Amino acid sequence: MARKPKGITEKHQKILKFLREYQQNHQYPPSIREIGEYIGVSSTSQINYYLDQLEQHGLIERDRGISRGVRLAHPHHEIVRVPILGPIAAGLPLLVPAPGETYLTDDEAYAVEIARSMLPVSDETQLFALEVKGDSMIDAMINDGDIVVLKPAVEARNGEMVAIWLPAREEATLKYFYKERDGYLLKPANPAMQPIHIPKSEPLEIKGKVVMVVRRVASVAA
């Protein structure tokens, strides 16, 4: 039985970027070894594992009979750069930047690159990303260091995962949102952690809804 493909990680994104740029510069695909050198993986079996997942997602095509048989399935699809505005806690709430401050560099280098065809929304211009800090969302397959992509929002339905700003506490957090009779419940996806109860008298601002997760994976030794 074929394995179900997992979510797209930072390594997958780097491979897609490399395939696009290499093809543009050389007019032919890179080799498996060159792909491995670019993403920092020397094990060909691990590289093939990533490529198999990308193929199952329909993002690449492979001709296993030739040495340079990996190519983008949609070569003309653009890569979208979503700015990473900074960290957000998925454990204890984390302070957000003060007004006027930003985590972006002058050239907006701090961004995550995503194939447009993978985005679950039609308009990517308003998307932003946050780096998860903490492990309270691990049961939702969101780990410390992962990147969550969000679309701006000021309202949410019960059970949606949102980034929330708590003005009275000057804190932001990533949680499941629930509206209750006497306030709000911000629920983690980790049974070892307690929900955060926010009374109606305390202001709460929803900043965005999570639409995608880009997973960060540890390097695999050869």
From TrEMBL:
The record marks A90, G91 as: Cleavage. One of its GO terms (biological process) is DNA replication. Residues 32-52 bind DNA. It comes from uncultured Chloroflexota bacterium. Keywords: Autocatalytic cleavage, DNA damage, DNA repair, DNA replication, DNA-binding, Hydrolase, Repressor, SOS response, Transcription, Transcription regulation. Residues 6-69 form the LexA repressor DNA-binding domain. Residues 83-211 form the Peptidase S24/S26A/S26B/S26C domain. Its EC number is 3.4.21.88. The gene is lexA. It catalyses: Hydrolysis of Ala-|-Gly bond in repressor LexA. This is LexA repressor. Belongs to the peptidase S24 family. The active site is at S136, K175. Homodimer. It is an enzyme of class 3 (hydrolase). InterPro entries: LexA, LexA-like, LexA/Signal_pep-like_sf, LexA_DNA-bd_dom, LexA_repressor, Peptidase_S24_LexA, Peptidase_S24_S26A/B/C, WH-like_DNA-bd_sf. Represses a number of genes involved in the response to DNA damage (SOS response), including recA and lexA. In the presence of single-stranded DNA, RecA interacts with LexA causing an autocatalytic cleavage which disrupts the DNA-binding part of LexA, leading to derepression of the SOS regulon and eventually DNA repair. Transmembrane segments: none annotated. One of its GO terms (molecular function) is serine-type endopeptidase activity. It comes from the Bacteria. Coiled coil: none annotated.
